[in-house]
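Fold it.
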Amino acid sequence: MASPITTINPATGETLATYDLMTDAEAREAVERCHAAFEAWRQEPLEARAKVISAIGQALRDSKEDFARLMTDEVGKLIGDSRQEIELCAAICDYTASAGPKELADEEREIQGGTGVITHAPIGVIYGIQPWNFPCYQAVRYTIANLMAGNGVLLKHAANCTGSGLFLRDVMDKAGLPQGLFSVLVIDHDQSNAIIAHELVRGVTLTGSDGAGKIVAEQAAKHLKKTVLELGSNDAYIVLDDADLDMAVETCVAGRIFNNGQTCVNAKRFVVTEKNYDTFVERFTEKMRAIEMGDPYDDATGLGPMSRDDLRDKLDDQVRKSVDNGARVLCGGEVPNRKGAWYPATVLVDVAPGQPAYEDELFGPVASVIRARDDEDAMRIANDSRYGLGGGIFSRDAERARKLASQHFDTGMVSINGYNIAMPNMPFGGVKDSGYGREHGGYGMKEFVNVKSLYMA
């Protein structure tokens, strides 16, 4: 029998809870229950689905403090960030309930000899495999869109936030979502492959590493099932010659440290032109050095722990390999002698191709600062990545920055003179090794629907 899942508080190393894995039969039964619930749910009018989704948003707000504390215990998020995450998830429900009926409404077009009707029909059970860095949001963002579309939803959450997945299920049940329509599968990777292959599962979505995305996409492709993949990034924030340096420094620090540095759209590479490089590095390093690690429940804490010891150790290894290949550490860069998955705010300079700090995603509070000759060279360096999820541009000429972002920046999202995570009414997703498909902004509701054409003579 497979070993149970044990969740650990990364700030203290203490055991939180233990969960038995489902048997194969229990997992199959969960899929069948979800499909049965879908068969009834798909018949519900769009307005009726929206009403339940609105109720889920309110239920999230009602349980905000308990849910936030559970997330902080399981993955080490600062308690303020956990509360904000619940509010974001509730806002996603609000937006979806409001915009969903219009986004998914039938469309009519004139055709020869009659009227063409385009419907957005739900396709069935959608299986989501989600990571630990946003225990509520990662699950909510694909679940709510698919529930609005009329689909059923399965969730395999990361093992270290199993409790959060089950808590979300209970929130949805209390809000009036039909039993089984959103089901949490407490399973391992081998069982997950069987779920992907299950004939009642019609689509698969994953948020995770590009390596995991390739594996899941291959498994789904064997069974001709559509996938949506959000696969992390190495987001570049470009400081152009005419940037407001005060704004750039403040924003870049916040963008690197948000969520303890463990966000796919964290600012990670900082590409700074020769004109501003020395001043930026000095000010940026000073602020990063001043960030203190501490109790994630203390509102004054600047940086909490990473989510697991093994993730911290991987980050430390990436920093060491980068230094071995020519990078320099200006602050941080050493694992502190304390219990828990701690790593300090770190700044690396002399970052160059061939180093993990340049090539790979550093999923933790480590900033890679790269010198560019000029604005054109900065854009070249920003695009010199296998990833393409988000990024940013700092310039006093907002219209020029907008043109650069829209025509030259090879990413799915660009922040201009700011830093943004996700907004319910704006599409979220990337290109290249950051994956494909979109969530939010109405687009996520249509990723797993049958766009059906009716020809009315």
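The two ends are 60 Å apart (CA to CA).
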